[in-house]
Specification:
Helix content is 19%, strand content 39%. By secondary structure, it is an alpha+beta fold. The strands form two sheets. Strands 2, 3, 4, 5 and 6 form a five-stranded antiparallel sheet that branches. A hairpin with a 2-residue loop joins strand 5 and strand 6. The chain is elongated and about 65 Å long. The N and C termini lie far apart (48 Å).
């Protein structure tokens, strides 16, 4: 058997990765969702200034599911600069609640409000529905195509476990 050169081995690996990460499918049924969330968090440590990894406790949270960019029930008055709707703020934890979770010798930080967004695309393939995570850019492409129901070509990530691109199908 011939000996493989380093370059040949690298080309084989790159080809395999490219093939594994670039599958596509065309869809006509799809929905973009963005789960927006607020969560109050407090850091705890024996020394908050020097702690490499403080313990983090979560308090009140609130979430809201955006579907195709349409204002959901319970959303605040206006979307943000990215077109996302947010829930009303959860109540800030009181000093009593913060102190109750403090362990001996620990300091407690100030409550900080964390904002998170999780993007997903749900699409139909035949009779089957699949939901995969995505990013903001793909979410926006699907939101823009949704009102006109423009068919989309979805490009999947490595192992087809995420959606990396959504483009209108050219006819």
């Amino acid at each position: 058997m011939p000996k493989l050169t380093c370059l040949t081995t690298q080309l084989i690996v790159l080809t395999a990765l490219t093939l594994a990460s670039c599958s596509t499918t065309s869809v006509e049924q799809y929905e973009a969702t963005a789960l927006t969330s607020y969560t109050w968090q407090v850091k705890y440590a024996n020394n908050l200034t020097n702690a490499p990894q403080p313990r983090i406790e979560s308090f009140g949270s609130a979430s809201l599911l955006n579907r195709n960019g349409v204002k959901p029930a319970g959303a605040v008055e206006c979307p943000d600069n990215q077109g996302l709707w947010w829930p009303t703020l959860p109540p800030r934890p009181s000093i009593d609640e913060v102190e109750q979770r403090k362990r001996p010798q620990e300091e407690a930080g100030k409550p900080e409000l964390q904002k998170t967004v999780k993007y997903h695309i749900t699409y139909g393939v035949g009779e089957e529905q699949k939901t995969l995570p995505t990013n903001y850019d793909v979410y926006r492409q699907v939101v823009k195509a949704s009102p006109s129901r423009i068919p989309l070509e979805l490009t999947f990530g490595l192992n087809d476990d995420s959606i990396e691109k959504a483009e209108p199908v050219s006819k």
